[in-house]
Prior knowledge:
The protein has helices at 12-22, 44-72, 93-116, 143-149, 153-165, 177-186, and strands at residues 28-31, 75-80, 120-127, 129-130, 150-151, 170-173. The chain is of the alpha/beta class.
Amino acid sequence: MVRRVDVTQAAAATILEELIQDLGGVDLIIVSAGTGHLNPDLNWELDLDTVRVNVVGFMAMTQVAMRHFLKRGRGHLVGISSIAALRGGRRAAAYAASKAFQSIYLDGLRDLARHSGRPIAVTEVQPGFVDTAMMKTDGPIPYVVRRFLVSSPTIAAKQILRAVQKRAKHAYITRRYGFIAFILRLFPRAG
Length: 191
Ligand SMILES: NC(=O)c1ccc[n+]([C@@H]2O[C@H](COP(=O)([O-])OP(=O)(O)OC[C@H]3O[C@@H](n4cnc5c(N)ncnc54)[C@H](OP(=O)(O)O)[C@@H]3O)[C@@H](O)[C@H]2O)c1
């Protein structure tokens, strides 16, 4: 069954609820929809678009998923956040902030699942660069970065699938971003 949904629309939650019902319940929901803009000039519309999709849309979809799993007594929610959630930056402040929202929101949903005492898993995926339309840079990517830090969609998908199969709480994609995250956390905050 296929349904098309714009996660920013008021009807989005209902469309997903109806799809779940038509399928007779589901065991796994992956929320991957996302957007992002390079916006150093702080254009309001661009940042609003990011917040609408990555915050409001993400919350709408994950809420429906979680309510379903809590009612069903089991399930698995996967959210695709980003390594960008770890630090703000001047080129895409709203994107990083929206991804931080996703990461923390997923933490909250995982806590809710744990307190329910039911076998409900919540996986947070934090990709670094993946070579898709989303990967926006404001110049050519240096060779070393491309060679070591940009993964193909196929490799990213394989590693995400492995994390889903393990019902992991968290996964960096690719795994070497675990090291990048460690370094990023040591950096002083911007400014
Ligand atoms: N690529 C990277 O480097 C990277 C890094 C970290 C995190 N991520 C995250 O990974 C997720 C997937 O991105 P991607 O790399 O696969 O990029 P992508 O190829 O640009 O895919 C983005 C997806 O989001 C969907 N989408 C955007 N706005 C939507 C809306 N309002 N309603 C419903 N769907 C919407 C798009 O649907 P349509 O095609 O129909 O527009 C598309 O399927 C995103 O959450 C992104 O933030 C990506």
